[in-house]
Amino acid sequence: MQGIQRKIVYVTLYEGIAILCASVGLALLSGQGAGTSTALATVCSVIAVIWNLVFNTLFEAWEKRQPVRGRSVQRRIAHALGFEGGLAAILVPLFAWWLDIGLYEALLFDAALLLFFLVYTFVFNWGFDRVFGLPASAAQPA
Q: At a CB cut-off of 8 Å and minimum separation 6, what does 135 contact?
């Protein structure tokens, strides 16, 4: 599977499983019911997808203007920190408001989700590639 079909299947499965896992995790951590946690996880998922599109558009526009091309380790670190920092700036106040908790506790929720998504993304990508094969950009030449 390649192209846009691969991307649609990827994001649908990734976010669907993420919402399920995050709902359970948020329910356990917050003591809120499944409905509240599922709604919050769904809103966070939508925000993350939109932020991903916005951030990557802005980052690529910035990257295009740089005299040095390519993606060095430093540039990848800057990308990851910028994305996660921006997402935290959006989600931490949302958690505080939605769950009626302080900003520090909301930051801890965000940190827990960040750790979860670090592992989840690695495992999901590995499994997705095993089931659907590698994308053309990463496949070995025939």
A: 2, 6
Report yes or no: 41 and 47 within 8 Å, Cβ to Cβ. Answer: no
CB atoms within 10 A of CB 14: 17
The first and second tokens of residue 86, run together, are 């921006």
**What are the C-alpha distances in Å from 77 to residues 5, 23, 71?**
29, 29, 10
Q: What are phi and psi of 67, to 5 degrees?
A: -70, -30
For the segment 14-67, what is each residue's pLDDT rounded down to a tens digit? 999 999 999 999 899 888 888 999 999 999 999 999 998 899 889 888 888 888
Residues near 116 by beta carbon (within 8 Å), at least 6 away in sequence: 21, 22, 25
CA distance 71 to 79: 10
What end-to-end distance do the CA atoms of the chain give, in Å? Answer: 16
Kindly provide the b/e burial profile for residues 105-130, where b requires at least 16 CB atoms within 10 angstroms of the residue's own CB: ebbebbeebeeebeebeeebeeebee
